[in-house]
Structure formats: structure tokens, C-alpha cells
Amino acid sequence: MGNRCHVRSISLPSRSHPTTLKIQQQLNKLTTLEASSTSALGRTSNGLSGLEELYNCMDELLSLPSTQQALSLHQHEKWVNELLDGPVSLLDICGTARDVISQFKENVGDLQSALRRRKGDVCIEISINNYICSRKKKNKDAKKLLSAMKMDNKAGASPLLDQDHQLSTMIRVLREVNIMSISIFQSLLLLLSTPVLKSRPSRWSLLSKFMHKGAVSCEESAESTELESVDLALGVLSSEEAKLETMQIARKGVEALEVGIEGLEKGLERMFRRLVKTRASLLNIITH
């Protein structure tokens, strides 16, 4: 996840509303995920969970009478349309990413089922080839999504907002939430766009060692994501007579990958529902 997008932390004035301070704390917490010692898929799942909590805090902000009054009074302002458009574009990204992950989970499940068969079974080789083709397709899909995403975090408050501290702070917070959302989704797509790796003796030796022991140091985990680890294991199975130990390592890697992918799928599903709710809340405030 070395190519994660960095999002600046915000520092709101001390007299800001407690709800905006909660949002600030959650935003700052999300910026530290990159330094986490968990796996790549684990960090991304944690990012989605943190994002969901961030939107819970934002719902609190939107439920405040002062927030609703400000949005109603300025409903024709350009920045209000910006706030409305944010959840819509994120919904498209989240929905597409959810579909990609769901389809990929099926491919990983098929591979895991095949690896449970006896070594030498022709179905194993077929499943490996199908999985690699799926990886390459998901790689392309993720890259297309990434190229379609535009992150504009340079928008500034209008002169009108600068004259109203509370309103200016609220808009700045909502914009930062949108920027963080984009960053988390970009991290997910960057992970999915990881190129398919071919096995190399030196890397497989290291990978085999820590996968067999069921533990991995921070330095080792930085070398391979779960996707890359499975790629390397499958490369060994495809290029030599499958030994029992090699098969067990591959099974273990695929099992970990399936658990991680399932976590992402659930996280994306929750975020999709959360974004729908946020969009509806904004519309209700502005149209009433």
C-alpha cells in the first residue's frame, strides 16, 4: 500500500461544535492507518470501517438544527451543490468496487475449492489459470476506476462563508469527509490494481518461510500483499510438481485472501447504504 493517497489532517478552532471535533478526531485517526502493522487487506477493511464511523459522525452534524438552517438558507449556493454531488459520485465508485470485489470473491472461492482436491488433479491447473485471468481483469477494472476518479481538494470557502465562522467550519469539515472518502476508495483500488506476480525463487523462499509458520514480520509483510503472496504460491504450483507442503502453503494463502476479500465486500456494502442515507439526509434538509 505504498502508493496510498495521503490526506492532510484538519485542525479546527477550539470553539468548534463537539460534533465537528469528533469528525476531526476520526479524520486524523484514518490518516494513521497507513502506519498500521496489519495486512494490506486488513488496513483497507479498517479504512472502510473507519469511514463508516466518520459518516455516523457526519450524520450527527447534519441532524443539528444549526446545520439544517444554514443549508436551507444557502440552498442555491454553489457549495451546496458540491456537497450534494459528493455522495453521488462516491456511490458510483462504491457500487462498482463492490461488484468487482463480489465477483472476485467467487473466483477466490472456486480456487480454494480446487486446491482442496488431490495434487495432480487437472481441475487445480484449470482453476489456477481461471484465477490468474480473473486477477488480470480485476486489475484492469480497478485501473479504469482509478483513472475516472478526480480528487479536487483545493476548493476554498466563498467570501460569504468566510464571514460566518460556524458555517465555514461546517463546510470545511464536510469537504474533508469527502476527500477522505475518495482517499480510502483509491487505496482499495490501488490494492486491486496490484500487478500479477510471477514466482521467483528468492521471494518464494521468504514467502514460504513466513506463511508456513503462520507469522510475518513488518519487513516481510511490506514485500508482499495477500494478492501477491497468492500469486507467488500459484506460480510455484504451476511451474513444478506440486509438493504437499507447497500445496498447503497455497491453501493457507488463498484462505487468508478469501477472508480479507469477504471483509472488503461487507465493508463496501455497509458504506454503500451509508452513502445512500447521507445523500437522502442532505436532500431532505435542502428541499424542506
Short description:
The protein has a domain of 196 residues. Helices cover 76% and strands 0% of the residues. It is built from eleven helices and no strands.
Give descriptors for this structure.
BPS1_pln; 288 residues; disordered N terminus; single chain; elongated; mainly alpha; DUF241 domain protein
3D structure, described in words:
This protein is mostly helical and 288 residues long. It has a domain of 196 residues. Helix 1 packs antiparallel against helix 2, helix 2 runs antiparallel to helix 7 and helix 2 packs parallel to helix 11. It starts with 17 loop residues before the first helix and ends with a helix. The N terminus is likely disordered.
Please outline the helices and strands:
Blueprint: H1 18-31, H2 40-62, H3 65-73, H4 78-115, H5 122-148, H6 159-162, H7 165-192, H8 201-213, H9 218-221, H10 226-239, H11 244-287
β-strand percent reads under 5%
Q: Largest sheet, described in full?
A: none
Task: Output the structural class.
Answer: mainly alpha
Which residues form runs of ≥5 with pLDDT under 50? 1-15, 152-160, 213-223
Shape: elongated
Give the SSE string: HHHHHHHHHHH
The first-to-last residue Cα distance is 43 Å
Tell me how many strands there are: 0
Number of helices: 11
Query: How helix-rich are the residues, as a percent range?
Result: over 70%
